[in-house]
Amino acid sequence: MTVLDVLQSTTAYFKKRGIENPRLNAEHLLAHALDRTRMELYLEFERILNETELAPLRDLVRRRGEGEPLQHLLSTVEFCGHTFLCDDRALVPRPETEQLVEIVESKIENQRSKILDVGTGSGVIALSLAKKLPEAQIFAVDISEDALALAEENAARLGLSGRVQFRRGALLENLDQRFDLIVANLPYIAMRDRHTLSREVLHDPEVALFAGPRGDELVRELIEQAPARLRPAGMLALEIGLGQSEALLSALAEKNYRDICSENDYSAVTRFLFARYG
C-alpha cells in the first residue's frame, strides 16, 4: 500500500467509527508512525510502505478507533504555541484553556506578578504564563502526584525547570503566601453528566473531570478560599462549565469580590469568570 492508500483507508475506517476530523486524525497518526511531518506525507503519497512501517500504525489506528484520544497516542499536544507531553496522568488541554491564558495575560499589569495556578494538571497554564511572563513568580498546585510528575517533565522539556514551583495539595491548602493572580481550570463536570461525555474525554483521569453532584463544588470552594491568599486588588480567574456562570457570579458577589466580569469562549459559551478582591 502507498502512503495515499493508507491515508484513504484509515480515513474511511475512522468515519465508520465516528471519529471527528477523520482525515486529520489519519494524517497525524501516519506522520507519527513514520516520523514525518504532515506536510512531508504529501510529498510521499506514492511511496510503498513495508510491513515494518505498517505494523505500529495498525495498533495506533485500532486504539484511536476505540476512542483513545489522539493526543495520548501522539504523546504530545500543542498549547499556546508550545509542545507539551500529554498522557493519561492529566486532562488533555482544551482549546478554550488557551483562550483563558491569553485573556489572563492581557489583564496582568505588573510583569513581576506573583501567580498561582490551582489544579495545574500537566502544567500548561503555569508553564505558558512562565514563557509569556519571564519576570513573574509562578507557583502551581495539584492534588495528583501523577499530574505533578507530568508537569515537571513538561517544565524540563520547555527549559523551565525551577521557573515554576510545583506543590502538592488540595486547592489552597499548605499555602501561606499571597498572590496577585490565582488562576484555575478545576474539574467542573457533574457526576450525573458522565453519560454525556465522549469516549475521548472519559480517558482523562476522573479526578480531573468530576467535582461532585452539581459540578461547581470545587470552583465554589476556591471562591471561598481565595480572598485569604490574594494580595490587595488581586485577581481570581476561573474556567467554568456550561450553564454555571449565573450561580458562580452570584457566589463571587456574595463573597464581596469586585470588578466581577465574565467572558465567552470562541463557541459563545460563558466560560471564564474574573474578579478582584480587596
Compute the number of strand runs.
11
Can you identify the CATH class of the largest domain? Answer: Alpha Beta
User: How do the SSEs run, as a string of H and E?
Assistant: HHHHHEEHEHEHEEEHEHEHEE
Describe the biggest sheet?
7 strands, mixed
Quote the beta fraction. 15-25%
Biggest sheet: strand arrangement: 5-4-3-6-9-11-10
Mean pLDDT: 96
Backbone shape: elongated
Helix content: 25-40%
H/I helix tally: 11
In CATH, the topology of the largest domain is named Rossmann fold
Domain unit count:
2
What's the Cα radius of gyration? Answer: 21 Å
Q: What is the first-to-last residue Cα distance?
A: 66 Å
Low-confidence parts, pLDDT < 50 over ≥5 residues?
Answer: none
> By CATH's scheme, which homologous superfamily of the largest domain applies?
Vaccinia Virus protein VP39
In CATH terms, what is the architecture of the largest domain? 3-Layer(aba) Sandwich
**Class inferred from helices and paired strands:** alpha/beta
